[in-house]
Amino acid sequence: MGLKHAFLDESGDSGLDFDKPGTGTHFIVTAVLVDDDALAEAHQSSEEVATKHFQGGEIRSRKVGNKHERRLRVLADIASLPIRAIGFVVDKRLLWTEGCKYKDVFHKFLRQKLDSELSRLYPKLRMSSDRFSTPEFMESFQKYLTRKYQGDLFDYREFGFVTSREDRLVQVADFIAGSLAKSYDRETPLETAAHLRNAMKPILNIWTWPERPEPFTVDEFTEGETGLDPRIAHISDRLAAAYITRYSSSKDPDDLVRVECTRILRFWLREIDAREYVASHQLIDRLSDLRASGINPTWFRTDVIAKLRDSGVLIASSELGYKLPASKADCLEFINRGNTTIAPMLKRIKAFREQVLRTTEGELDVLDRPEFKNLLAAINKDSDPEVMSQ
Q: Considering only CA atoms, which of 299, 359, 289 is closest in space to residue 121?
């Protein structure tokens, strides 16, 4: 995997006294990621965004404020840039679950989390942040990286400060961080928050920390097969989380792709819309830069989705894409898609076998091999005409 450039910015404050005026509930760090060979194009394209929306001035979230329609127009153009972005969203109200009662402890945990996730995904990374607008956390993050990686010949990690007025991609990171913060702001209408996140979906993966202990409540769910069922949502969420924990430290690059795919599907279930499928092309697009040879649809189906299912992750699918199931309808959709393929295929294999047996007067049974034991048992059991009538 080649060199990546990461442009970082933060939004929010580090305060933990929520009774104090001005103390927000969330702290956000955004990393805008660019391939080394796409860096010049990304800078040029972001310059065009500045010219179109800011009369050539800085691309700044605070300049837009609560003008949400204008913000959405800017985000639409940012989403077309040759970039990816990761948003690390910290819900400070839940930090007591991690033992982070004080700001310095909070910063320590976040530094370690940010470094571990970025280094796991991108071994060769050159990071930059605004020298002036984000002094506190980013300065501590730079010192942390210097202490950890200085003199390590087997690691490629750089961190430096730039002047945001001279670097459009740091400004883009600022705008994404500010927009993400708006989507989590208690003062932002829920519909507007959803529109903001939808506008960033093409380029942005969001990691939330700490996790909400009970993301699914009975109040969110409705009756009937299509209504969301908290029992199904919980088991889908728990099995996905277990897979991420089990394989997140794997050195196999293909495991890395499967972990990130599971992260995306789990985030959709918990934070976006438990009813919504994620399109195949959208998943492939988000994951492709994690694999040197890229990802094609066949490999994605057989080496990502199929192997996740083999490992116990519940993944429903339809013509709309993939999701972690959260309703009876999700489960039935997956079973029905399998049934329309498996039952006819069993019927064809049975007919093929019987024709060969008749032709050879019973001497050749094409299923009389150890590797076909389960298949033979299924065909013998499925002699029930009701099963074979599909």
A: 289
| The residue type at 52 | K
Cis peptide before 123 (omega within 30 of 0): no
In angstroms, how far is CA 122 from the centroid of its own chain?
15
Looking at the fold, whether 76 and 173 belong to one and the same domain comes out as yes
Angle at 86 between CA 150 and CA 179, to 5 degrees: 125
Q: Do 312 and 347 share a structural domain?
A: no
Give the integer Cα–Cα distance in Å for 265 and 136.
Answer: 33
Examine residue 231 and state whether it is found in any structural domain, yes or no.
Answer: no
Q: How many domains does the chain have?
A: 3
H helices present in the chain, as ranges? 39-54, 61-64, 68-78, 103-121, 135-149, 168-184, 190-200, 230-247, 253-267, 280-287, 297-299, 306-310, 328-359, 373-381, 385-388
Residues 6-62: tens digit of each pLDDT: 999 888 877 777 777 877 888 899 999 999 999 999 999 999 999 999 999 999 999
Cβ atoms 266, 314 nearer than 8 A = no
Write down how long the chain is: 390
Q: Are residues 321 and 347 in the same domain?
A: no
* Domain that includes residue 284, residue range: 242-326
Same domain, 132 and 268: no
Please list, residue by residue across 58-73, b when 16 or more beta carbons sit within 10 angstroms of its beta carbon and e when fewer do. Answer: bbbbebbeeebeebbe
- Regarding whether 37 and 88 lie in a shared domain, the answer is yes
Q: What pLDDT is attached to residue 178? A: 94
What CATH number is given to the structural domain containing 293? 1.10.10.10
The Cα angle at residue 278 between residues 291 and 196, in degrees rounded to 5: 100
**139-190 per-position pLDDT tens digit:** 788 777 777 766 554 445 666 667 777 799 999 999 999 999 999 888 899 8
Same-domain status, 19 and 145: yes
Q: Are the C-beta atoms of 267 and 208 separated by less than 8 Å? A: yes
Q: How much is the pTM? A: 0.75
Tokens of 106: 């909070």
* Of the candidate ranges 85-99, 139-153, 289-303, 360-374, the one whose mean pLDDT is the lowest: 139-153
DSSP 276: P
